[in-house]
Amino acid sequence: MSGQLTPDQALTQLVRGNERFVAGWPDHPNQSARRRREVSDSGQQPFAIILACADSRVPPEIIFDHGLGDLFVIRVAGNVLDDIILGTIEYAVEHMHTPLVMVLGHDKCGAVTAAVEHIGINNHVQAVVDALQPALLLAEGQQGDRVSTAVDANVRYAVKKLQASEPVLLGACAAGQLRIVGARYNLDTGEVKIMA
User: Fold this and answer.
1) For a tag on the chain, would you pick the N or C end, based on fewer CB atoms within 10 A?
2) CATH number, position 73
3) pLDDT, tens digit, for every residue of 72-118?
């Protein structure tokens, strides 16, 4: 599917799928045994890459109402970006020609909350909290709830890092083959809002 869509068309597909989910009328496309065989035989061509939080309340395939082979989903606490995740995104852009990357934050993110509230951690979760520090610096002094502003700052930080990543992502964006956007999921309504 990705070879057939422009970046803007791919974003429209996500928005329409989310609208169906919010309305309570999902189509559940591409979830059949036939589709399973199809993607097994012909490979994957996802039309969107989603960098999302690992939070169990935010499953991209469900909230965007898509199925097998449609979305290339990377889930990690706090939707943090590191070199492994960046390499994974580059792979999908370069080898599968996926035209859209979305960094998806969400309300009440536990990882962001831990980072904002400086919760004492003495295990590997500290690595996630440390990875969120650049976003927290961007959120300092902003009006509103500290966790909420940090969630948005974290999304914007990741989007900017992706947009500037050379040579693959920067080159694909410059050629008009790729769009990188930030978005936020509302746990109460199910709505995904694209961030300006």
Assistant:
1) C
2) 3.40.1050.10
3) 999 999 999 999 999 999 999 999 999 999 999 999 999 999 999 87
